[in-house]
Amino acid sequence: MPAAQTLAAGPLAVIPFGVAKRDPTPWTFGKQLKAWLVAHDEDLPAFAKRAGIPYGSLHAYVTTNRKVPSDRMQRVALATRIPSDYWISGKPYPPPAVYSADAVEAAWRRLQALPDDLLTEYLGLLDDTDDLRRTLELRRTARGYSAPRGPAPRP
User: What is the C-alpha separation between 115 and 155, in angstroms, rounded?
Assistant: First the structure.
């Protein structure tokens, strides 16, 4: 009788194909803010002054991963024009496009361009999530697809 093979050496060995490697350094607030500063060509002292946060405190939040108090997180959010939920999310930089100042400004311009009757109806949809979902489903069906696929094609 042949010798027993161990699972690791045998034909049934488990090989972790397709397993994503984890980033050994998570996206802490400090790492996120450093990436933002580089992307916006701003240094930490200038940002601290602009945000109204003492440099020593901000430096500690960035380098030692000290917890950022909510009032100071709001100052960071205002100074970067990125909501505070991104800064506490641990997500990599750059943040999702929905957080970018350009996307918010573009949405604002498009809302301002709507006639009053459409704006009122649109804002009413935002008040009722179920109505919004039904309306979007009808729109997708009319365009020939049923599952959400991101932005609709431009005519």
Answer: 20
